[in-house]
Amino acid sequence: MPARHVFVPSVFLFLLALICLVGLLPPRGSPPLRSFFQPWLPLISGTSGTEHDSAGSECDYSDGRWVRNNDTNVTAYTEDCPFLDPGFRCMRNGRRDSSFRYWRWQPRRCHLPKFNATEMLERSRNGRIVFAGDSIGRNQWESM
């Protein structure tokens, strides 16, 4: 097969991919993607939507690290939920330690409040909670 027959489709596919990629970029001067999620932040954080530390820096929940939670009031861990996928039953699948229960995510410049299931359900009363997607959505549903 001549090299020309391979080169032409490759260039065409490259240009098509480039056009699609450019089409997905937000228009110049548009607000950052974070502003798209701004209306939902109060539901996630239970605050005004934009948290600030004492120095006035804006909170970014994705910028942080895992820290050891030495709180003696760690939520009880159970694998008895009938909706829990068998693959997520750590102890029944041979995990010998329970140290994973003592870690939490700590954003760098803000306080991440403990999840309040009652408040979340009250805010969602007469509404719908939708988990869309693939296995990640399924994991979120099972965690809920």
Q: Would you write up a description of this structure?
A:
The model is unreliable at about 35-40 and about 45-50 (pLDDT under 50). About 35% of the residues lie in helices and about 5% in strands. It has 5 helices and 2 strands, in the order αααββαα. The protein starts with a helix and ends with a helix. By secondary structure, it is mostly helical.
**Approximate shape:** extended
- Quick one: biggest sheet? 2 strands, antiparallel
Q: How much strand?
A: 5-15%
| Spatial extent as radius of gyration | 23 Å
Number of helices: 5
Spell out the helices and strands N to C: HHHEEHH
* Helix content bin: 25-40%
Distance between the termini: 56 Å
Describe the protein's topology:
Elements: H1 3-24, H2 33-37, H3 41-45, E1 64-68, E2 103-107, H4 117-123, H5 135-143
What would a concise description of this structure say?
The protein has 144 residues and is mainly alpha-helical.
What descriptive keywords fit this protein?
single chain, 144 residues, mainly alpha, two-stranded antiparallel sheet, 2 strands
